[in-house]
Specification:
Protein name: Transporter
Number of helices: 19
Strand content: under 5%
Shape: globular
Subcellular location: Membrane
Family: Belongs to the sodium:neurotransmitter symporter (SNF) (TC 2.A.22) family.
Helix content: over 70%
Keywords: Membrane, Symport, Transmembrane, Transmembrane helix, Transport
Order of helices and strands: HHHHHHHHHHHHHHHHHHH
Number of strands: 0
Structural class: mainly alpha
Membrane topology: Multi-pass membrane protein
Distance between the termini: 43 Å
């Protein structure tokens, strides 16, 4: 299927890789990967993650990007183009970024708030463990959420090549440099090397099926799979860009930043607490780490650099999520990009308000015992994404057949892993995704703890 002149595109391989890597590198790399590595045996978790990345993750990402490039459509129409019986998967997949983007922008607003505090030299104020709780319980998150949405939508409004690609080419190299710089500094802290040993040394006694599930789940969510993002970005990918090579490079970026996040966070926490306070999620980023930074002489400098890094990671991911929603709206309705961006902004502000105020004035309203943000995260990440990924595997593996993806990949160069791709997409990935679905739901409902 030939590219139509009206379809936006990245200028080349570098632009595509950096934009897609920016999508994959997000908050999960920073606030969850280090926690899981510390919990599940350090080096043994890292090894497990790497093996899954070059097999399971590679196959799923190749499939999604190939679907986008082959159909030249976003998720809303791409599945139907491949097989009319799977047209229903388009709307199902499209719901995912519409749910995720608003609450992700709320968290992006939290990051902006902390960045502003450190930039203005008031980092000592957030080292109090109560600051974060008091902040999200107020109406203040609404202001920072709106600012973050405006920044994201303005970038997306400028287009694929002039906006998303240009910003990614600027932010991704800086993100890598910041990660390296902060990691090197953290290694110089007293007691940090104990954290490095704990992080890198394999502890085989902690290896279990739960270790594999944790690595598999982290990889699945980290690589922006089953959100419609890679299909959308694939639709902007030129035919002469090597698909399999690009996926390998995206994985290197994603895994590399996650690894560096571990080198930043685990040694720093070990230096401050001896490793007794490595937790996951917002608690690690907005409570534990500010306490760690508060113990360092150059608190505001390190805090500024760290939250600038986190801001870049959050922004590149929110841009890809927002672009996916805009592309879905434009492909479905035929409207222009600016109109699609305005409608998307309205959706983000409407749904995001619930999450922004969900721990404050709306805290009394809960769904199955969850605040709005937690509920949206549960529905999108734990339920919809694994379902979309599973059905995608069925479509590729048994309906259009793996050859359709392999042929698309080979249009731009050799696809050396095609035999392994067939085995994974038909047999291994569906089983893995069912395991992710079950374990994610049980974890979200606190029946098990991963």
């Amino acid at each position: 299927m030939e590219q139509t002149p009206k379809r936006s595109s990245f200028s080349g391989k570098l632009g595509f890789v950096l934009a897609a890597a920016g999508s994959a590198v997000g908050l999960g790399n920073i606030w969850r990967f280090p926690y899981l590595a510390a919990k599940y045996g350090g080096g043994i978790f890292l090894l497990c993650y790497l093996i899954l990345a070059v097999t399971f993750g590679f196959a799923l990402m190749v499939a999604e990007i190939a679907i986008g490039r082959k159909t030249r459509q976003s998720a809303i129409k791409a599945y139907g183009v491949l097989d009319k019986r799977f047209r229903f998967l388009g709307p199902l997949c499209s719901v995912v970024p519409i749910i995720i983007t608003p609450y992700y922008c709320v968290i992006g607003g939290w990051v902006l708030k902390y960045l502003s505090i450190y930039v203005t030299g008031n980092g000592a104020n957030v080292s109090d463990g109560n600051f974060f709780t008091e902040f999200i319980s107020s109406s203040s998150p609404m202001v920072w959420f709106i600012i973050f949405v405006v920044i994201t939508v303005v970038i997306v409004m400028t287009g694929v090549e002039k906006g998303i690609e240009k910003v990614s080419k600027f932010m991704m190299p800086l993100l890598v440099l910041l990660s390296l710089g902060i990691a090197i500094y953290c290694l110089t802290l007293p007691g940090a090397m104990d954290g490095v040993i704990y992080y890198l040394k394999p502890d085989f006694s902690k290896f279990s099926i739960t270790t594999v599930l944790a690595a598999m789940g982290q990889l699945f969510y980290s690589m922006s799979l089953a959100m419609g993002i890679m299909i959308t970005y694939g639709s902007y990918m030129k035919k002469d860009t090597s698909l399999s090579s690009a996926v390998h490079q995206i994985e290197i970026f994603d895994t590399g930043i996650a690894f560096l996040a571990g080198l930043m966070i685990i040694p720093a926490v070990f230096s401050f607490t001896g490793g007794a306070d490595i937790n996951a999620g917002p608690g690690l980023m907005f409570m534990t780490l500010p306490k760690v930074f508060g113990s360092i002489t150059i608190t505001n400098i390190i805090g500024t650099l760290f939250f600038l890094l986190v801001f870049f990671a959050a922004l590149t991911s929110s841009i890809s999520l927002t672009e996916t929603v805009v592309s879905i709206i434009c492909d479905k309705t035929g409207m222009k990009r600016i109109s699609g961006c305005i409608i998307t902004a309205v959706i983000l502000l409407a749904l995001g308000t619930l999450s922004a105020l969900g721990y404050g004035v709306l805290s009394q309203i809960q769904i199955i015992g969850m605040a709005f943000l937690d509920f949206f995260d549960f529905v999108s990440n734990s339920v919809l994404m694994p379902i979309v990924a599973f059905i995608t595997c069925i479509l590729v593996g048994y309906v259009i057949k793996p050859k359709a993806v392999i042929d698309e990949a080979e249009e731009s160069g050799p696809f050396k892993g095609k035999k392994l791709f067939v085995i994974i997409i038909k047999y291994i990935a569906p089983i893995c995704i069912i395991a992710i679905l079950i374990s994610s739901i049980l974890n979200s409902l606190h029946i098990i703890n991963i």
